[in-house]
Amino acid sequence: MDINTLRTVVTVVSFALFIGIVVWTWSRRRRGHFDEAAMLPFIEKDGAEASGERK
């Protein structure tokens, strides 16, 4: 097995992993979880005044 074969295998595996992550990210089943996570920075905490945070 020479270095070019190894490079080809690593490239194909990396591409397959990338496609898998894209499919997982855009799946309809995960959409609700990602939408909820996207709103986390905008959720106000109880007691924000006590900890010194601004509204």
UniProtKB/TrEMBL annotation:
<keyword id="KW-0812">Transmembrane</keyword>
<keyword id="KW-0560">Oxidoreductase</keyword>
<keyword id="KW-1133">Transmembrane helix</keyword>
<dbReference type="InterPro" id="IPR008621">
    <property type="entry name" value="Cbb3-typ_cyt_oxidase_comp"/>
</dbReference>
<dbReference type="GO" id="GO:0016491">
    <property type="term" value="F:oxidoreductase activity"/>
</dbReference>
<protein>
    <submittedName>
        <fullName>Cbb3-type cytochrome oxidase subunit CcoQ</fullName>
        <ecNumber>1.9.3.1</ecNumber>
    </submittedName>
</protein>
<feature type="transmembrane region" description="Helical">
    <location>
        <begin position="6"/>
        <end position="26"/>
    </location>
</feature>
<keyword id="KW-0472">Membrane</keyword>
<dbReference type="Pfam" id="PF05545">
    <property type="entry name" value="FixQ"/>
</dbReference>
